[in-house]
Description:
Blueprint: H1 2-20, E1 24-29, E2 34-37, H2 39-45, H3 49-52, H4 57-60, H5 66-79, E3 83-85, E4 111-119, E5 125-134, H6 136-157, H7 167-184, E6 188-195, H8 198-205, H9 207-224, E7 230-233, E8 238-244, H10 248-263, E9 267-268, E10 273-274, E11 278-284, H11 292-308, E12 314-316
Amino acid sequence: MAIEESEANSFHWLMDMLESVEVGLVVLDLDFRVEVWNGFMENHSGITASRIQGQVLFDVFPDIPKGWLTRKVDAVALLNTKAFTSWEQRPYLFRFRNTRPITGTEEFMFQNLTISPLSGTTGEVNKVCLMVYDVTDIASSKMALERANEQLAKLSMTDRLTGLLNRGTWENLVDAEFERFRRYGHTTSLVMFDIDHFKPVNDTHGHLAGDEVIKHTASLTRNAIRQSDSAGRYGGEEFGIILPETDAEGARIICERIRESIEQSVVETSVAPIRYTISIGIAQLTEEPENYMQWMQKADEALYAAKEGGRNRVVVG
């Protein structure tokens, strides 16, 4: 009698623990009928144990991926071994709303899942236990860190003032485009341009107004080029554009569009409205340059010719 009472007390203690533990606990038979549904599952699903007991899990939660979970459970039962899935593989099994105030930015609870085999008296697996862990805090922190790292990587590649590629990143792309031409022979053009009479803008209106002009130039350039093109800020007031799959005439049309839009616009700075122009040089890549620096030199020479020719013009080298 004392032994039976001890066992009963142990059972009740175990059930109390399963009800209060901060882990979801679900026991299913191999037809996916629910046999155990603890307090964690009740609290987050809004479904009581008495209501779900004996029901097929997929009937109550039709959004659970049936094929995926069935394959997992079949493997656990067949091999009599645990299976584990992290939130990174599948964000959640049960679509529970996130209720944690710390990680309120996440809409749903991120979950890790363990599926354990449960054997009957014959030693054969006849049930499985799903343990659902709320890992929203961990997932949210990791995703925030990844977003921060992506932002840092982006900042290391871009020019802070304009948002265009910085000189080092852009030059690397020029080199890559040069090697692509050497390998495949695809038509490609390089553009170098700068702002005409920029020093007087700084001297007259100040560096903040000069920065506004540079940002304005970058914005109009970004709006004028295609997604496959790459624009960078090469120096103070000098810019470059890589135009893949574009011959000199195609490049000239794009550059004229940029030149005209800048000539016709006004930069409204806090000091004064500023009008300005740009000079542009284009070099379509040929077999002549031995490296990307010589290709850039060709575009730079065309830019110099545009300056010498009176500025506010496009010259094809």
